[in-house]
Amino acid sequence: MTLDCDVVVVGAGIVGAACALRLAERGEAVVVVDRASPAGGATAAGMGHIVVMDGSEAQLDLTVSSRALWREHVGSMPDAVEYDPCGTLWIATDEEELATAEVKREVLRARGVEADLLTAAAVAEAEPGLCGGLAGGLRVPGDAVVYQPGATRWLLQRAVQAGAQLRPPVAVERVGDGRVALRDGTTLRARHVVVAAGGQTAALLETRALDDAIRPRKGHLAITSRAPGTCRHQLVELGYGRSAHGHAAESVAFNLQPRRTGQVLVGSSRQYGATDASVEPGVLGRMLRRAVALMPALAHLLIVRTWAGFRPATSDGLPLVGPLPHDPTVVLAAGHEGLGITTSMGTAALVEAIIHGAPSSVALAPFAPARAMAGGVGA
């Protein structure tokens, strides 16, 4: 059986949900397909930060734009999204990291992002649970945290209200030439197919040119019992950027999020080469010890759940967003690694601009999949 529509979105994670909503509100007849229930995969396994990151000019552009788009929706978000405008406090453990914070402040301010340098005393006042001896910090008050499964379901509900169709879970066999072949024998035919399937994206394409462009990067997380007030901001050590954007086989970094439930979400770890999603006690232990070293109060809390998942990563830290050079009916929106929640809204805006040939406030070229096919990302 063959069904026609304007756009098929492959993937019901947060990036696919944001694309479906944006395109449905544009008047497109959108069909969303996924092999599993919505908000699974990398979306379910990650942290829910909406944060400005400056690992590159392109990343800064996309995160600033996307954060602004998230903020436009705050008034319409239901409680299930658990949007918390807690801001981010970047922690400097020494003078070298404090100098990094000063540079980061100037970079952010040049883009119109509010950012304030804090002394060690100001950090202690803002977050009394942190350890002593810190050099200072950088507060970015416009950042936020969401409960990403709730946010994804809300986006999909809005997309359906705008006319999109969310099909029951069914595996996608192949994507190409404006067609999506489903395992149940159905073929969906569309002007455009948006592939937002995370680490599964390359395997769904008829081309094999992108097979190595997106690599799985394993991460561990833990969540505590309820202890309201343990931390007031999302807390990240300034060394996090080296962990997030480096290529070490294994690394851990301090990252905490306050949750609306009163719990604390504890991260983070990164591993290349891991294929098993099971929790690894050694990696988890390193991550938790790092967290307790910087936030000693965590030692008195009960860890109620731990889990691991895979981030879809590219080697240059930027997602693949754009049409396939040899098949412009297929538009990729994948490879966001740990910034899928943050950049979902901005990615959807890029996809809309690509499909409709509209102007974009964020340059498209740095995200083009062609760079991976030329060996830049997939090398």
Structure description:
By secondary structure, the chain is an alpha/beta fold. The chain folds into two domains: 5-47 and 148-213 and 317-372, FAD/NAD(P)-binding domain, CATH 3.50.50; 88-141 and 215-313, D-Amino Acid Oxidase, subunit A, domain 2 (D-Amino Acid Oxidase, Chain A, domain 2). The protein is 30% helix and 28% strand. Helix 1 (14-25) runs parallel beside helix 6, helix 1 packs parallel to helix 10 and helix 3 (57-72) packs across helix 10. Mean pLDDT is 94; it is low at 375-379.
Find the CATH superfamily of the largest domain. Answer: FAD/NAD(P)-binding domain
- Which residues form runs of ≥5 with pLDDT under 50? 375-379
What is the C-level CATH assignment of the largest domain? Alpha Beta
Q: Please provide the count of β strands.
A: 18
How many separate structural domains?
2
Classify the beta-strand content into a percent band.
Answer: 25-35%
Query: On the 0-100 scale, what is the average pLDDT?
Result: 94
Order of helices and strands: EHEHEHEHEHEEHEEEEHEEHEEHEEEHH
Q: Compute the number of helices.
A: 11
Query: Radius of gyration from the CA trace?
Result: 20 Å
Major sheet: size, sense and barrel closure?
A: 8 strands, mixed
Instruction: Indicate the percent of residues in helices.
Output: 25-40%
The computed structural class is alpha/beta
By CATH, the topology of the largest domain is: FAD/NAD(P)-binding domain
CATH-derived architecture of the largest domain: 3-Layer(bba) Sandwich
Terminus-to-terminus distance: 39 Å
